[in-house]
Amino acid sequence: MPIIDDAKLDDLRKAVGSSFELMMNLFRESAREEFDALRSALAGGDTVTMRRAAHTLKGVAANLGANRIQVIARRIEVVAADPAAVERLLEPLDRAIEITASRIGELV
Question: For 37-57, what is the mean pLDDT?
């Protein structure tokens, strides 16, 4: 699975024009914030916050064509009531966020 859907990202770039760089920077910040919220919620046993953070991350990733983040966030959203399952998905999500942020950094 590609880390980013380049066609979707190109469509977004055309749609938002000069705001593209700002949007990409905001994505990198918000993805990290939602990941941190997920990790904190897991540590605190807060299923509602885990589900909300995963849902937010899934939606933002979908808008950018960040496929891998979207898929992993969706899995977390579904298994939020199972802390062990969420724990297993955090490392792949963290890697996906890092790789995606790096790829976005190359584009802006």
Answer: 96
